[in-house]
């Protein structure tokens, strides 16, 4: 009955009703399963059993022998607490304290078999196909595949060892037992695996053991046989060609968890993430015009990748190589593994891109100088023919520096075969006519070189004909030289 004259609130909990519910629940017998660990209070002791209150209306029984010590005296009394294993629920609860500790008496083996409880056994000797095991004075057989999770190269290694086993087969009243240690190890491993998986989250840094190495990476055991893949691309900021050169099976390494795909059961790991990204300081380290030692790592159709520092790969574009007359001819000069001096042409640290060009071996720039060849109006240079166009000939002067010889500056007649006069890959001497401010457009002349050569030959001829003190004008001598050359060619 509610106190006072307060109106009844249907939403307010009824304390009398709650108490009744709790009382009713407390009087219901608890449900127990075989193999379950329980804790209870000893309520009475009879001649051969003790009665234990484990909650609810019912009481469980436990053999009195289970409660005696080595001297035969009882280790508990009425009111004492015991922890035991439920070995049977048929006709009442039956408990075992020895099974809770892994030990067993011969008469308890059947209970252990039915409940799937572990029992201790001693490996006596290796026999054909397995091992002879003594459990509670009873001979049992453990197949060789069930003694451990891993293959045992030396069967004698287990002899004399005491292990927990699970009874897999119980025949002939316990005279024929087949047991397994592996079943318990796998169960333990599964439990540990769940604990390990809780620690495997993106960003976590863990220690693991390399299990195997493949051409695409290495599998790493993070504990309890939970494995992740350390892909070759995540091993180092530098290119790793062979994962076996980076790690070996059995190595203990530190890794960072990159991704976890629970649906596919895949764990991606990395080691390079535990070190600073070399690109983070690339803008401070590299600048246009520097000459750095580099190693060619791989070739593509558009150029060569060059490692100029650990973890820093630059690209030597195909256009920076002298023409050879064939589309892939440049590759012969820089096979993978080639080392040499490379000039930095461009730096884009944000996009992780650096452009370089191979410096000619033996040149001053190859020894560390950063200056480019003097490409200025009036300079007389040697280059290689790169390609032909309808408006002229392109000549490669230096990495990233290509100039154009217009048709009118080639020095050949209009009807002449330009390709024969300027074969691709052939060397040609030119004079720089003009260069735009950014240096991207360079206008060249072959005709100017030919004219200078003609004037030089005329001077030499005049010196030979007139000798010292001869007053004849240079112009008339030049005309005579032209006439002589013309007659010689006719």
For the record, give the distance between the C-alpha atoms at the N and C termini, rounded to a whole number: 141 Å
The class by helix and strand makeup works out as: alpha+beta
Number of strands: 25
Name of the CATH homologous superfamily of the largest domain: Nucleic acid-binding proteins
Globally, the shape reads: rod-shaped
What spatial order of strands do you see in the largest sheet? 1-2-3-5-4
Radius of gyration, whole Å: 46 Å
Query: Which band does the percent of strand residues land in?
Result: 35-45%
**CATH fold category name of the largest domain:** OB fold (Dihydrolipoamide Acetyltransferase, E2P)
Number of DSSP helical runs? 8
The domain tally reads 6
The overall average pLDDT, rounded, is 83
Question: In CATH's first tier, which class of the largest domain applies?
Answer: Mainly Beta
Keywords:
490 residues, alpha+beta, OB fold (Dihydrolipoamide Acetyltransferase, E2P), five-stranded mixed barrel, five-stranded mixed β-barrel, 8 helices, rod-shaped, disordered N terminus
């Amino acid at each position: 009955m509610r106190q006072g004259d307060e109106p009844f609130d249907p939403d307010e909990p009824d304390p009398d009703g709650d108490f009744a519910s709790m009382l009713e629940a407390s009087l219901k017998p608890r449900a127990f399963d075989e193999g379950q660990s329980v804790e209870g209070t000893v309520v009475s002791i009879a001649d051969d059993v003790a009665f234990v209150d484990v909650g609810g209306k019912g009481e469980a029984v436990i053999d009195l022998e289970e409660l005696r010590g080595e001297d035969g005296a009882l280790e508990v009394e009425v009111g004492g607490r015991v922890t035991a294993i439920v070995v049977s629920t048929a006709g009442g609860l039956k408990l075992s304290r020895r099974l809770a500790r892994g030990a067993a008496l011969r008469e308890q083996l059947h209970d252990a078999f039915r409940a799937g409880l572990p029992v201790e056994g001693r490996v006596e000797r290796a026999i054909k196909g397995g091992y002879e095991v003594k459990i509670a004075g009873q001979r049992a057989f453990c197949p060789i595949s069930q003694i451990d999770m891993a293959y045992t190269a030396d069967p004698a290694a287990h002899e004399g060892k005491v292990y927990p086993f699970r009874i897999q087969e119980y025949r002939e009243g316990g005279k024929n037992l087949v047991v397994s240690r592996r079943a318990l190890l796998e169960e333990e491993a599964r439990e540990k695996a769940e604990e390990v998986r809780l620690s495997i989250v993106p960003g976590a840094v863990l220690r693991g053991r390399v299990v195997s190495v493949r051409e695409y990476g290495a599998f790493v055991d993070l504990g309890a046989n939970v494995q992740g893949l350390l892909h070759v691309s995540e091993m180092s900021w530098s290119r790793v060609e062979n994962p076996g050169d980076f790690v070996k099976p059995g190595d203990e390494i530190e890794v960072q968890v990159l991704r976890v795909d629970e649906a596919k059961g895949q764990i991606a790991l990395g080691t390079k993430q535990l070190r600073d990204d070399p690109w983070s300081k690339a803008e401070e380290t590299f600048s246009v015009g520097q000459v750095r030692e580099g190693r060619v790592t791989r070739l593509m159709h558009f150029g060569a990748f060059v490692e100029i520092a650990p973890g820093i790969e630059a690209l030597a574009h195909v256009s920076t190589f002298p023409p050879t007359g064939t589309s892939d001819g440049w590759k012969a000069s820089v096979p993978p593994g080639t080392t040499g001096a490379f000039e930095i042409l461009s730096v884009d640290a944000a996009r992780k891109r650096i452009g370089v060009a191979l410096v000619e071996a033996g040149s001053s720039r190859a020894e560390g100088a950063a200056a480019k060849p003097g490409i200025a109006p009036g300079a007389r240079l040697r280059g290689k023919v790169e390609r032909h166009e309808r408006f002229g000939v392109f000549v490669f002067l230096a990495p990233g520096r290509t100039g154009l010889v217009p048709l009118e500056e080639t020095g050949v007649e209009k009807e002449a075969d330009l390709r024969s006069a300027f074969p691709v890959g052939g060397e040609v001497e030119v004079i720089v006519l003009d260069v735009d401010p950014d240096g991207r457009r360079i206008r060249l002349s072959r005709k100017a070189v030919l004219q200078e050569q003609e004037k030089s030959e005329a001077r030499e001829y005049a010196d030979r004909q007139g000798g010292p003190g001869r007053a004849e004008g240079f112009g008339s001598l030049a005309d005579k030289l032209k006439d002589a050359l013309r007659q010689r060619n006719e």
